[in-house]
Amino acid sequence: MPAGGHPVARNASFARLTPQHVEHFRKLLGHEVNSVTYATDPDDMNLLPYNVDWIKKYRGQSQLVLKPSTTAQVSQVLAYCHAENLAVVPQGGNTGLVGGSVPVFDEIVLSTGRLNAIRHFDDVSGIVVAEAGVVLESLDNYVGERGFMCPLDLGAKGSCHIGGNVATNAGGLRVLRYGSLHGSVLGLEVVLADGTVVDMLRTLRKDNTGYDLKQLFIGSEGSLGVITAVSLLTPPRLPSTQVGIFAVSTFEDVQRLFIAARRHVGEILSAFEFWDRTSQQLVETQLPTAGTPHLFDAPFYVLLETQGSDADMDREKLERFIERAMDEQKPLVENGAIAQDQTQARAFWETRENISDAATTAGACYKYDISMPVPVLYDLVNDAKAHLKQKGLYDSAQPDQDPVRFITGYGHLGDGNLHLNVVARDFTPEVTQAIEPWVYEWTQRHQGSVSAEHGVGFMKPKYVSYSKDEHSIRIMHGIKAMLDPKGIMNPYKVLQ
Ligand code: FAD
Ligand code: 2HG
Ligand code: ZN
Fold first, then answer.
1. Can you give the residue range of the structural domain that contains 219?
2. What's the domain count of the chain?
3. What pTM, to 2 d.p., does this model score?
């Protein structure tokens, strides 16, 4: 059984890597610096960053990492792997949270790290064409210098690649305003398992010439091919951004505040994020040097952001909204602060963005990424606490010995997306079996999705049926078989 995942056996139809294979790849890519990393020992330090995932829950045994720098090279690599039955894991920034980006056994890692050119930018429409390996933050800086912004933003922006974002259909912090990548991605260039290059790299807002095939690859998590380039519609970077953090007493009030925000500042609202007291405490205790401000104590926190074209008007509007929220007969907000400048705004955002890493730093972090109707969103956290307490794993008379140390909830309230993080002392079968499938059954009962934005990866193939009907799953298998008949693309992931 592979480390961190569900029980699965190595697919015997895949070839084992031989010196001849390595020699072939060296001929193909080896004249370029760092394009082939090979070691006889998969625990070799040079391979470790590619074999281990971000949360250190999953670990593969690959001996070979390839870094092609052109689409033609990706095509040659895959054509050869296809002919030789060698399994491949596409890898971007390796920030994925469901074990999808690292090998399960000895699959070859195909890293997009050197596919990092920006091919084109249209400064009228804001459409940028970038190769898959461009780091999200670099892409945002690039379009930012030209008066635009990436519609996508997330805590891992300094490491994740735009190709990885598209492959996971990452959501992030501004879906509420700019929608999902299914809307912002206008085109893709993709290399299929047999090396075929499919050019869907259009830069058109409208194109109804039959099936919209690129949509299949958005969120396909490397299981259908390698995305080599992305055409992305970027919105104008507006001159005024206002950010406030607010203390809220109950989850009901968080929802009331959300309804009021949409009603009163809806046209400039760009983010509505929430977290609970435990999340705040984790950030303050686990990442004390991260520079995030110490906040007022509260059961819940809301970060609200507006983006608009007139700083004075937007600020006044937000202040008036908050005053009204505090003056209500039952105030929606107990306390709060609006950032005075961009440095403070950044610090407010860092508090929110650091929660994921703070929870990961605190111990063995089980991450659940659920979407469901907003009114029941936080019930999952309360129910998880009660459930794990009842199992004797959490909140016992001897908390120093509890296998589960923290249970916390936060997320993208505006999208109905909760991140439930269960921080244990270690990843153990006892804790895993106490939470799974309980958490997925709970989600199914509440008409939710077992993956809101992180994907399925190696963590959830057996739970896809909790959110998709049998016919949908059959069609997914059919698509996989058609595009990757030998199943060499990211095996053991997404589908089981
Ligand atoms: P990787 O982790 O390398 O890969 C992810 C998956 O995509 C794998 O299955 C891989 O095989 C596949 N893949 C990667 N590149 C390609 C390619 N070019 N072609 C085909 N397949 C490919 N996610 C959200 O949705 N919202 C968030 O707010 C968010 N915040 C995060 C915050 C932190 C601190 C961290 C660590 C992660 C966060 N994530 C979030 C998870 C998110 O999935 C990733 O950060 C990001 O989208 C993955 O990009 P990556 O380049 O790191 O991909
Ligand atoms: C976020 O919104 C990310 O911070 C990560 O999606 C969530 O770590 C997590 O569970
Ligand atoms: Zn998220």
1. 118-233
2. 3
3. 0.97
